[in-house]
């Protein structure tokens, strides 16, 4: 069946995400109320990308842009490539900070491509979109909450990635501490050993299970539920300020973890009143995004072009 592209622009809003959540390495993720907005339409030829906000002047403005790369991969699945593309990106998710900026770009690209094909939803349903986004990202723990919203548990089967969403207890109030320095997932993964002691793996399995219970039903258990021995200590040498802040918060009784591969720190329980992380950190209290990625017709409007995330406290 031939592929028919729709006329006019489509837009998508994608949330930031925090993955791992301590012991839930490559499995657990949380969607946060900080968003990128991206609009795209098919053109007669060429690729144009306009970026404002985070990454402006740094990110590619052609086929090398990650949203375009993801769109191209999705168009291959959908059966045809358009002659050209025009994109507008309003980015609020900090780049290379452990808040899922790359996953947001990938999910945005997959969903935009699907929306630009007349029967795209029939050819690429949400389950297939998750599998494709996970293949492009390399693991599903960030793309799952970005696509689905809320708290997700993701895993990979021979056929590809799968995920489920679970409700989060009202008392869970995420706060992120975002440093000026950047980090790369590839560098953080290179710090991990090929094997870990059996006792550490067993401890993480128990704490990850406890974390699911703590996030969904009993937040009072978040501090013990966020103990990790699989990845955070191994990465500490490469981001000492992040490790120090995590330790300081935990000593104050706050369930704090490295967000994703870092260097951002995520606090899942109420941050101690008056806690000051220092001038090198931006502190944002973010709601949990329960909707995930949202697609609509039309170009970005005034609200989407606002570079400041509504409701964010700093």
UniProtKB/TrEMBL annotation:
Q: Which reaction does it catalyse?
A: L-homoserine + ATP = O-phospho-L-homoserine + ADP + H(+)
Q: Name one GO cellular component term.
A: cytoplasm
Q: What class of enzyme is it?
A: transferase
The record, for InterPro entries, names: GHMP_kinase_C_dom (IPR013750), GHMP_kinase_C_sf (IPR036554), GHMP_kinase_N_dom (IPR006204), GHMP_knse_ATP-bd_CS (IPR006203), Homoserine_kinase (IPR000870), Ribosomal_Su5_D2-typ_SF (IPR020568), Ribsml_uS5_D2-typ_fold_subgr (IPR014721)
Domain (GHMP kinase N-terminal) spans 66-150
Q: What is its main location?
A: cytoplasm
Enzyme Commission designation: 2.7.1.39
Transmembrane annotation, as ranges: none
Q: Where in the cell is it found?
A: Cytoplasm
Functional summary from the UniProt entry = Catalyzes the ATP-dependent phosphorylation of L-homoserine to L-homoserine phosphate.
Q: Which HAMAP family match?
A: Homoser_kinase
Q: Which family does it belong to?
A: Belongs to the GHMP kinase family. Homoserine kinase subfamily.
> Which named protein is this?
Homoserine kinase
Q: Which species is listed as the source?
A: Micromonospora terminaliae
- GN (gene name): thrB
């Amino acid at each position: 069946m031939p592929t028919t592209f729709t006329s006019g622009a489509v837009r998508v809003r994608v949330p930031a995400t925090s993955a791992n959540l301590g012991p839930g390495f490559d499995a657990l993720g949380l969607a946060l109320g900080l968003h990128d907005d991206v609009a795209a339409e098919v053109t007669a030829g060429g690729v144009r990308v306009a970026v404002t906000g985070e990454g402006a002047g740094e990110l590619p403005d052609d086929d090398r842009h990650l949203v375009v790369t993801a769109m191209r991969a999705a168009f291959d699945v959908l059966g045809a490539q358009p002659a050209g593309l025009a994109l507008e990106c309003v980015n609020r998710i900090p780049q290379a900070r452990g808040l899922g900026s790359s996953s947001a770009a990938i999910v945005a690209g997959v969903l935009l491509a699907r929306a630009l094909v007349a029967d795209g939803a029939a050819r690429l349903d949400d389950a297939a979109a998750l599998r494709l986004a996970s293949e492009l990202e390399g693991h599903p723990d960030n793309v799952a909450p970005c696509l689905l919203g809320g708290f997700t548990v993701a895993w990979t089967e021979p056929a590809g990635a799968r995920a489920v969403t679970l409700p989060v207890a009202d008392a869970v109030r995420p706060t992120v501490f975002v440093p000026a320095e950047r980090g790369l997932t590839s560098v953080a993964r290179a710090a991990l050993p090929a094997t870990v002691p059996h006792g550490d793996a067993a401890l993480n399995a128990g704490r990850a299970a406890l974390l699911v219970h703590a996030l969904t039903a009993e937040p009072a258990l978040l501090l013990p539920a966020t103990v990790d021995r699989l990845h955070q200590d191994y990465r500490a040498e490469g981001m000492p300020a992040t490790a120090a802040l995590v330790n300081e918060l935990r000593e104050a009784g706050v369930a704090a973890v490295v967000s994703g591969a870092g260097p951002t720190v995520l606090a899942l329980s109420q941050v101690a009143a008056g806690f000051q992380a220092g001038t090198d950190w931006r502190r944002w209290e973010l709601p949990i995004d329960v909707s995930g990625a949202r697609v609509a017709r039309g170009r970005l409007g005034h609200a989407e072009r606002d570079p400041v995330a509504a409701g964010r406290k700093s």
